[in-house]
Amino acid sequence: MTHLLPFLLCQSAGIVLFALGWWCASRSRRWAIAISVxxxxxxxxxxxLTWEPVWEATLFPWLGYAFLQSCLLSMIGxxxxxxxxxxxxxxxxxxxxxxxxxxxxxxxxxxxxxxxxPEIHGELLEADADHHYQQTTNYTCAPSACVSALSYxxxxxxxxxxxxxxxxxxxxxxxxxxxxxxxxxxxGMPYRARIVNRTVDELMQPGVTAVVTExxxxxxxxxxxxxxxxxxxxxxxxxxxxxxxxxxxEHYDGPVAVVIEPRP
Length: 264
Known about the structure:
CATH superfamily of the largest domain: Cysteine proteinases
Distance between the termini: 30 Å
Number of strands: 6
Oligomer: single chain
């Protein structure tokens, strides 16, 4: 499914912010400094939130943000560089900063290109009767784990569908985009996805279903608590595994987990 209008709006917003920054800096040095400090603060905050997905999802719990958040960094960057170019007195400095701004603009196009040409990864297959799904590529562990997790709440999904919703690339899937995919899939359902901090004890509680990162990192699995143990749906394996608390502690690269829970 393509989203041409949001793509055009995101790119247009970046251009408008760049032009706005240039115009403000050209008219008033005081405004230029104030907006520059604000833009730099926003850039720093967005980079911090990228590394702290629990904070990001807590501060911005709306689906619209989850849908568009990959575009924000380039948009704020273009505002900042528009401000910077207008304040530089030396021509070659302006050219260098302009070149950097062009790179940021291209990066923004690339980061939101999925709206125009969605990538296709994985197969149109669903979890089996044991809620297990084995990934069909080396990098679709997160969407495959989502397939297993959704199966526990009777929501059918395929690896390919979840890879699209999770914005999976051949480099993998971020934790925030795993949350994004589950959130979009659960729209209108009696369940929701949340990024939260969860201990091993909490994950083992009966009925708790989550997608977590397995040690040493960069591999996603689904776990389902059964009280005293968990069923681990590792997409690399051909069948589910049963782990005790000690085994889960050895594998769980916490504390961040994407949990599927009933809506309040």
